[in-house]
Amino acid sequence: MGARPPFLSDSDRDRILLAIAELCAERGYEALGVDEIAARAEVSSERFRELFADEEAAALAAIDEILAAIIQTAAKLYSPDRSEAESYLDGIKALLEMMAAAPAIAYTAYISARQMMPPRLTDRRESGARMLAVMLERLLDYSTLETQPRGAARAAIGGAEAVVRREVARGCTAELPKLLPDFIYSATIPFLGQKEALRLARATRSRLAEEP
Description:
The structure is a single chain. By secondary structure, this protein is mainly α. The protein has helices at 12-27, 34-41, 45-51, 55-75, 84-101, 103-116, 119-136, 152-169, 180-210. It has a domain at 63-210: Orthogonal Bundle (Tetracycline Repressor, domain 2). The longest helix has 31 residues, at 180-210.
């Protein structure tokens, strides 16, 4: 198995979830089988069935874990001592770094969950996207624009997801953190205007250049 992301333990259950993510990235959800998943996770098929009713139940659990990790990573970086924009910068940076460090998890979250899995699993992914959009709408409190575009937050999330899917599909997941300035610009421009969005993007680019 590949490197284990920090939100998964070395338990039988979490090894199964990581195995599902890896196999989805390699072969697609429809090709999953209990015996193959169990072998990758280094557990018996009987142990798999003790923990999950079937492949779909295990895949749903994997999506749950990934969505929870994404939302918790973003949420925990909020601080009353920083502006919403600064919190978003750190939150998006942490999310991109998490995906870059675990390509199979990124593939499951942004490609398998959208294109290959049953509607029940796709609905779970959408609920996570809606929650992130609600968090993004907090930038409205900082806006100086005369009119506020409806649906801007969901559109920004959708645009960001499209870019992530493209990079993951191209096998460039490790390069995602380098796109942080672009994500910051597209996320903040509907709320803060072009001037402030450009300033934040430039500041983010400078910050990345200073990192080792």
